[in-house]
Amino acid sequence: MHPLHLSHYTATSCIGTGLAAMRDHLRGGRGGLAPCAFETVNLTTWIGEVPGVDDVDLPASLTEFNCRNNRLAWLGLRQDGFLEAVRRTANRYGAARVAVILGTSTAGILETELAYRRRDPDSGALPDDYSYRGTQNVYSVAEFVRRAAGLRGPAAVVSSACSSSAKVFATAARMLETGVIDAAVVGGVDSLCLTTLYGFNSLEVLSPEACRPFDVARRGISIGEAAAFALLEREPDAAAEHVVKLLGYGESSDAHHMSSPHPEGRGARQAMEAALLRAGLAPEDIDYINLHGTGTHGNDAAEGRAVLDLFGGKTPASSTKGATGHTLGAAGGLEAVICALALCDGIAPASTGTLTPDPAIPINLVRAPTETPLRFVLSNSFGFGGTNASLILGRGDA
Amino acid sequence: MTLTAYIRGVGVIGPGIADWPALRALFAQGGVHEPAATQIPPLAVLPPAERRRVGNIVKLALATGLQTCTAAGVDPATLPTVFASSGGDGANCHTICETLASSDRMISPTRFHNSVNNAASGYWGIATGAQAASTIISAYDGSFAAGLLEAGVQLASDGGDILLISHDAPYPEPLAATRPMADMMGVGLLLSADADAPALARISITLDGDATPSRLDDPALEALRTSIPTATALPLLRCLARILDGEARSACTLPYLDDLRLTVTLEALS
Predict the structure, then answer these.
(1) Which residues of A touch B133 (CB under 8 A)?
(2) Active site (annotated) includes residue A257
(3) Which domain holds residue B90?
(4) Which ipTM score applies to this complex?
């Protein structure tokens, strides 16, 4: 594919509201996970909560979108001058030429979960102040961002569980390649809710401690939340300072099981191979892999197998979910931004939380933040339903 | 910017509509559509354990996709897919929210993995063995148009064939009061970038900011069009019926976003 440019990008997660704090955490190999004290949740687990989300006020004209997910989106949009960059881009191309393609898994479901506690005792009705379209509906975050940024181009949400916000890069890239649009706001927003906390608990994959991806004694995932955005366009914005390139994407389906990956990582390998093919790169060209690495026994084993089969055991690789938690539908976007920082700074991020790498998965796990020239990096995002997506990003001068 | 493709097959399951031949007959007769509850045909493709676990919306999506592939004579295992839906499994979501609001919040693992919006895509892969890319696109009431745009863009970008499956199912109360939807409906289109593939019609898609969405003459079908997001596809299917009945060209405008439409032109193949 013809390389596309991430002219601007930003991310907000438990390791920082905006890029400066996030960079500090990544350079120090420090995580942001803490014991779960979210809402009324009574589970023994650790989470990656973004501070101050409930203090965020949405623009007065958009209060119908008020829910944790859109508050997090609004907090994230206003970091690092991102919203201003989007508005400049809309002025340059015309608002109808800028798309909004975002990923989320649960959108504003928390608002519905809370509304179900306030049902009318006689009729069972939800409270009058509840807005389905602005909160729970899966599209609400894209509609909110489109209106908040004053955009008038195509818009959609990709909600394919934990691959959602990696796949949006592919969707927007195709729209750019075919000339349907001139720029796209892509990324992912997913926020803490009871459905995912109690849901992953029901599958017995919530780690009782901060998650330890690829550790021999890994005990499951830590759930996080994040808003990550990138402005994707064919030519870089002249005002952009830290441009990286989207060089390839690959998508596949396991066709195997709803909540377990193919044990040999078949679909994962297909997605990585497709991304390499589209980028015109060979496995040995990749300088770093940001693993999906959720910290469950089966996921890490399957992904490790796929990485070993395709790359051998030399390519430096890490999962950053031990630092950020698994931000589900926002993970692909968040980890694309982590890869962008890695490329710009020449630092491979650490596999935070990993104490003793699993000897059964002999990949080259990055144990501490490592200064090294990075030219091409690959990021994996896989999800329930056997959905797989891999992205390849390159340094601006690559 | 115009995207062009070829329609190789079509499937439809909705209120009082069993399949594409039934809907085509309805369009041809100018007859009055008599609404009846959507009937999902029995599914043989999923293993029995999976069949017991899936919700009606997944069964609807799978049946719609299989109907479309059968009509086109194409093996579903070979196809990339675009699923479009305005929401997920509403009945499942309701049960989860009820449980989470109760004193015992332990939800079932099956309910949880069925709660993902790509559940139909996941079960489609398990049922058919399709390992190609599969995505799920949502844009509220414009989800069908968003899915059609995505399918058209994928074909323009990558060539080959692609299966679009739009599917929606209503929520039970109390969510139904906040998101009314008449019934379940699925529409499938097997689209191809290949001009030489056997096809029913050529389709061109353009974004259009100002056009007014097309309406249907039959009051019952027009009511259906505005009562289920997937039913916004009906004017496109009427165009296809007209082409198959001998018209050279037939166009319509589909709702997409509040300030954006999709204009679709169908042309007969020479």
Answers:
(1) 170, 251-253, 274
(2) no
(3) 2-267
(4) 0.98
